[in-house]
Amino acid sequence: MCCSAVYVLAGVFYGIASLLSVARTGVGDPNAGQTENLDAITAVVLGGTSLFGGRGVILGSLIGAVVVGVLRNGLTLMGVSSVYQVLADRHSRDPCRHRRSAAHARPRMMHRQKGGQT
């Protein structure tokens, strides 16, 4: 009984979201909004919540959502092509990007053998 009520409630929310999406875009596309869940994850991570567990702050998530919205709207208002918008969006979503680039830029240390030879 409880589980079916959750599914009914989820269906109601999905229906409301689809009506708002059709009202906003004027098109009923089944593929629309596939990356919106990634926008939410990006906003939360930019707000300071760790993907590996831990605690976050609601204000931080709100600030992250504002940053994602400003980035998306700013690129659209500047007339940037949608291809480049997707690239900028994906680049901002990669939380390990700075770690990988720092690991590749770090010089490898040479280990000394006994006797002082390298």
The Rg value, from CA coordinates, equals 22 Å
Beta-strand percentage?
A: under 5%
Instruction: Tell me, rounded to a whole number, the average pLDDT.
Output: 77
> What overall form do the CA principal axes indicate?
flat
Low-confidence segments: none
Question: Could you describe the largest sheet, including whether it forms a barrel?
Answer: none
What is the ordering of alpha helices and beta strands?
HHHHH
Helix content: 55-70%
- Number of DSSP-assigned strands: 0
Number of helices: 5
Kindly report how far apart the N and C termini lie. Answer: 71 Å
Structural class based on helices, strands and sheet pairing: mainly alpha
Notable features of this structure?
5 helices; single chain; 118 residues; mainly alpha; flat; 64% helix
Structure in words:
It is a single chain. With 118 residues, the protein is an all-alpha fold. It has a domain at 34-104. Helix content is 64%, strand content 0%. It contains 5 helices and no strands. The protein has helices at residues 2-25, 36-46, 58-77, 82-93, 97-105. Helix 2 (36-46) packs across helix 3 (58-77).
Topology readout:
Blueprint: H1 2-25, H2 36-46, H3 58-77, H4 82-93, H5 97-105
Helix pairs in contact: 2-3
